[in-house]
Amino acid sequence: MTTRKRRSAAPSAGPTRPPTSSKRRRTQTTEFNIQFLADWGLTPGRQKLVAIVVVTLGVLAAAVALTGAVAALGSGFVPTRSSAEVVVGQPRPDRYQGWASPKLFAPIADRNADSAPLTVKEVFPAKVIKHGKQDLRLVSTRLDGDCASAMWGGTVLEQLAEAGCTQAVRGLYLSADRRYIAQYTLLNVKDQQSADAFADAMKVHHRAGWMLALPSTRAVFPTGGQTEGSGHAMGHYVGLLWLARTDGAESTPKDDFVGLSLAVRTVEKPVYRRVVAVTGTDAG
């Protein structure tokens, strides 16, 4: 009897694949959801857009803050109340002219040769300045040992700090007919080079920084009105002059701002006296 041999099973070609479903499984997605935005009725898509905008603004704000901090550290300038808070809406001159120190002030080119501090009584001794038929009456004065308290504008304050400004004496005038207002500020800096540089730099910087107007119920510089300014280096001092019509209108030749400027600048006589005190001779 013939015995049939069973055929051995063919070797497996590999692991058996699990049966594949004819339908692909759907990929599960998680919807973007911020509860309080959802409460406002925003769809997930709009919520994501809002989140992106908020994050972007936060990054930009941080970058601006960092830039400011780096700039401050690099310059050594620390913002004060005057520079940080008193900028918006401050009146400033529409036109400005600056002059370097004349040679006659060479004896007081350095503060070490003229160390006596300024006083209000020295700079503004008279209550009235005569100008033809027009009287200019002194309505307010102030002496600040911190020049940042008398000026505004970051760049201006930074340059004053570099110039070693230790005093700012201000006087505010009003004409008898209340048609004109003027303010004079005398700055005490370390040397003539710094004084010349500051008077010249204000040709540009006066657009973003200037002296602070003295507060007064009798005389107020017109915000948005036409005003004129000038800067005069005198040895280690800088005299800043500011003129305007009280109505804010632009000056005309009839207003004689040149004559008014010369009248107000008579307060510079004490600087000439300091030259005499150092040299023992008339400053001319």
Describe this structure in words.
- The protein is of the alpha+beta class and 284 residues long.
- The chain has 2 domains: 35-75; 85-279, no CATH class.
- 31% of the residues lie in helices and 21% in strands.
- The strands form 2 sheets. A 7-stranded mixed beta sheet has the order 1-8-9-6-5-3-2. The protein has a two-stranded antiparallel ribbon with strand order 4-7.
- The relative contact order is 0.15.
- Keywords: Membrane, Transmembrane, Transmembrane helix.
- The chain crosses the membrane at residues 49-73.
- Residues 1-28 are annotated as: Disordered.
Tell me roughly what share of residues is in helical segments.
Answer: 25-40%
Shape assignment = globular
The overall average pLDDT, rounded, is: 81
End-to-end Cα distance: 153 Å
% residues in beta strands: 15-25%
Q: Largest sheet, if any?
A: 7 strands, mixed
Assign the structural class, choosing from mainly alpha, mainly beta, alpha/beta, alpha+beta, or little secondary structure. alpha+beta
SSE order, one letter for each helix or strand: HHHEHEEEHEEHEEEHH
- What is the strand arrangement across the widest sheet? 1-8-9-6-5-3-2
Q: Compute the number of strand runs.
A: 9
- How many distinct domains? 2
- By DSSP (H or I, 4+ residues per run), the number of helices equals 8
Q: What is the gyration radius calculated from CA atoms? A: 37 Å
- Pick out the low-confidence regions: 1-14, 21-30, 66-86
Region (Disordered): 1-28
Keywords: Membrane, Transmembrane, Transmembrane helix
Transmembrane segments: 49-73
